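ENTRY TYPE: protein
CONTENTS: sequence, structure tokens:
***
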Amino acid sequence: MTAAAPCPPADRVDPVQLPRPLVRLLTEEGHARLCLGLLRQAESEAEATDAALRRQVRPMDRLLAVARRPRPSVLALTRHQEDLSRVRRARLACETILRRLAAEIEVDLESVVRATVPKYVRGLAAMENLADWERALGRFVDRLGALRRAVGEARGAATAGYQKSLNRISDNAYDRLADAQQAADRLEEEIAFINRLSDLHRELVAATPCAGVFVPTVPVAPYANWIGQLPSLAIGPLQAEFTRILGVLDQLETEGAAVLADAVKRSRQAHLDMAHSFVLAELAALRSFA
């Protein structure tokens, strides 16, 4: 009684369960690789013979060949060069066949991996999560710009309508501060949502081929609280606080948003590279099986 074949890990492709068309492609590729090895060997040997025949051709032999009186050394070299050209053409054709087979195999194998390896599918799902992150980043940029404008308008209104005798800003300034407060609330909501997506992404990529690929979080700051404290300040500290808040928002707008967008692009590419590497690793293991 023969022992049962060991079961493959649940996170790997089972060679026994490969679709027949994929097995045929792998087998054909194996034959093509063997053929390519033989052709490369033949080409190398033919190039060595070509060099040896060239050394045997003397200058006078070349002149006689021009006069259509080729010597045996020239005839031998000519015949050999024709053989060498045929070998090279065959090698190039074999390489073209191998590239076509490799492309077909990779597409078919990715479908098998997608259907049979749960951790690979989880990695793909995590990559889709990046699309949500990118949309949220767009909203973050919009809301950050809205808060920046609202704070700028509030500062202008506070200065223009300030009543020195009462040490009081105008009603319009209070309205603009209320607008800024709402804008700050919306920005903080979006930052919290982005950071939740980042945490979710970490959970999704755990134990997948994309483990270690993270998307960044957005720094949290109490923007709404800062805005809420402005009406209680005297005009001097008020203007200083406006300047500080706008500086924080300017830095986040000019540096933070661009850095975050670039980080997401790099994370997406890392997802693609790791997923591709996983499929190639499976392919390397299956080639020996086929």
Summary: The helical segments are 20-56, 59-66, 72-116, 118-160, 171-205, 223-229, 235-289. The chain has a mean pLDDT of 80.
